[in-house]
Amino acid sequence: QSVLTQPPSVSGAPGQRVTVSCTGTSSNIGAGYDVHWYQHLPGTAPKLLIYRNDNRPSGVPDRFSGSKSGTSASLAITGLQAEDEANYYCQSYDSSLNVVFGGGTQLTVL
Amino acid sequence: EEQLLESGGGLVQPGGSLRLSCAASGFTFSKYAMGWVRQAPGKGLEWVSSISGSGGGTYYADSVKGRFTISRDNPKNTLYLQMNSLRAEDTAVYYCATNLFITAAASYWGQGTLVTVSS
């Protein structure tokens, strides 16, 4: 059971917009700690997509965006492409457990 | 270009020990905190441990506290994870990552090394 809750799966057709939610509590996201997002393809190194809630590292397309409000955060992907099919994880800090990850969300491009 | 290369994984019996290494290149290693994250088969990412750039600060997940030790050799640009008293539930791919410390994001990750704990 992960401290941060993500939907197990989401899906969308090419060109559509999808969102991945990440729900925490008052001891992590709700306490004001930053949320980061990663993209992970099996057998490869995870890749940082969004850091500090809504910032994109150099090289990440602007189709990816992040937001945070209250005890939750969201990752939005617009103009969905086949190459976006991957697992997505949120990460934050919890005052009792240190670094915490969400359980991961598998994105399927239909 | 930043690169991280993990090594040291393999098959070990329950109760055994293993030391993982993560060789870093392409950046000033000593300036960055580092961390280890693992992924058990069919599961999500789980934070294991983090260490400050100087090595003076270390943090562990409750699941490994007292059994695993994180360390670094800055002149050798290498991060380590000493794993003792291994259990079946420690079976996972172990990734090293830069900057994974307290509230910061993990900027770069290695490809991972597989640890299998089984008799």
Structure description:
The complex is a heterodimer of chains A (110) and B (119). Chain A is an all-beta fold and 110 residues long. Chain A has strands at residues 9-12, 18-23, 36-40, 47-50, 64-69, 72-77, 86-94, 98-101, 105-109. In chain A, the strands form two sheets. In chain A, strands 1, 3, 4, 7, 8 and 9 form a six-stranded mixed β-sheet that branches. Chain A is globular and about 40 Å long. The N and C termini of chain A lie far apart (28 Å). Chain B has a six-stranded mixed β-sheet with strand order 2-10-9-4-5-6, with no helix packed on it. Chain B is globular. Classes of the chains: A mainly beta (110), B mainly beta (119). The A-B interface holds A 2, 33-34, 36, 38, 40, 44-48, 51-52, 57, 87, 89, 91-93, 97-104 and B 4, 35, 37, 44-47, 50, 59, 61-62, 95, 97, 100, 102-103, 105-112.
Q: How are the elements arranged and paired?
A:
The complex is a heterodimer of chains A (110) and B (119).
Chain A: E1 9-12, E2 18-23, E3 36-40, E4 47-50, E5 64-69, E6 72-77, E7 86-94, E8 98-101, E9 105-109
Parallel strand pairs in A: 1-9
Antiparallel strand pairs in A: 2-6, 3-4, 3-7, 5-6, 7-8, 7-9
Chain B: E1 3-7, E2 10-12, E3 18-25, E4 34-39, E5 45-51, E6 58-60, E7 68-73, E8 78-83, E9 92-98, E10 113-117
